[in-house]
Amino acid sequence: MASTENTELSEQEIAFQARIDRGEKIEPKDWMPDAYRRSLIRQIGQHAHSEIVGQLPEGNWITRAPTLERKANLLAKVQDEAGHGLYLYCAAETLGITRDEMFEMLHNGKMKYSSIFNYPTLTWADMGAVGWLVDGAAIMNQVPLQRTSYGPYARAMVRICKEESFHQRQGFHIMMTMSNGSGEQKRMAQDALNRFWYPALMMFGPSDKDSVHSAQSMAWKIKMNSNDELRQKFVDETVPQAEYLGLTIPDDQLSLDSDTGHYRFSEPDWEEFHQVINGNGPCNEERLNARIKAWDDGAWVREGMMAHANKRSAKKQVAVG
Ligand code: FAQ
Question: Residues 16-30, buried b or exposed e (16+ Cβ, 10 A)?
Answer without folding.
Answer: bbeebeeeebbeeee
